[in-house]
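Protein: PSer/pThr/pTyr-binding forkhead associated (FHA) protein
Species: Spelaeicoccus albus
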Amino acid sequence: MSESEFLGNVPSESSDDETGVGKIPAFDSSSTGIGSSSTGEIPDARLLELFSDEDIAAIESLPVGSALLFVVRGPDAGSRFLLSADTVTVGRSPKNDIFFDDVTVSRKHAKFVKSGSGYLIQDVGSLNGTYVGRERVDSHQLAPGDSLQIGKFRMIYQCRQG
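Structure follows.
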């Protein structure tokens, strides 16, 4: 599989409810390293090591405009979340679309907002911040392979580009 094939397209999964967010069955999290570059970005070769064949198939079958978040470190390591709604909220409150039950996450921490064929992430006033790579961000357009951190939760973002 070429790098552009892997990074460019992803699987069709339906969401659990009308929120457009689905928790997809866990993947093999035996390799949860994040890469060692100073920016926190994961080298493309390392991306292939992070994901199982099932994960890669899920990424390749994503419909255009949706995305997957792979939790690679933290209390929910191994979880995958499908993003397909226009706005997806993340936080410690169970009222969020993505619920991270940990004190390092604010009740209303961040939101993913559909932008073009992908998503941007916006911090909504969290105490501990939202990070892309190793940089704290208020708002950031996400690209396939971006490393995100919300509290103790380290995630990898993948989307299918149109």
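Remarks: The chain is about 15% helix and 35% strand.
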